[in-house]
Specification:
The chain has 1 helix and 10 strands. The chain is mainly beta. It has a single domain (6-115), classed as Metal Binding Protein, Guanine Nucleotide Exchange Factor, Chain A, CATH 2.170.150. The protein has a 7-stranded mixed β-sheet. A hairpin with a 5-residue loop joins strand 8 (80-85) and strand 9. It is globular.
Length: 139
């Protein structure tokens, strides 16, 4: 009998927890200005999955960071948790570092390198994109 893995994570203080079953569609390391500012980090790793696969307990705060994007975060400790673009309502991105086992999901691509901070290195051996990877060829 085949079993499907359950993956869990949550915020720093534990007020918001989440879980998803199965494997993600893709994993990314994003260098865009918006992700950097939202997380206060030089780049942000994401696990992209089917939105229907995600279960959240607790009540994360929501912030529309741009006209088409909603981000969720813990209102108690500030941990950035999700990113969802109105253009792709069937998917949701979860911050990889908020997973209980983040090492299980290394990035399979790197995006928005045109926004990358000059002192941050790129990951060797994975495709790199100047902007989004949607319809683009790697650099």
């Amino acid at each position: 009998m085949k079993t499907t893995a359950v993956h869990e994570g949550g915020c720093l203080c534990g007020a918001v927890r989440y879980r998803f079953t199965g494997e993600p569609r893709v994993t990314s390391l994003c260098h865009c200005r918006s992700c950097r500012r939202a997380c206060g980090a030089p780049s942000v790793a994401w696990v992209i999955l089917d939105a229907a696969a995600l279960e959240i307990s607790g009540t994360p705060a929501r912030y529309r960071s741009s006209p088409a994007v909603v981000r969720q975060f813990c209102s108690a400790c500030g941990t950035q948790l999700t990113y969802q673009n109105d253009a792709s309502p069937a998917t949701i991105d979860i911050t990889t570092a908020s997973l209980d086992e983040p090492n299980a999901f290394p990035p399979s691509r790197e995006i928005w390198l045109e926004h990358k901070l000059a002192w941050e290195s790129v990951s060797p051996g994975i495709p790199h994109y100047a902007q989004s990877s949607r319809g683009a060829s790697p650099l």
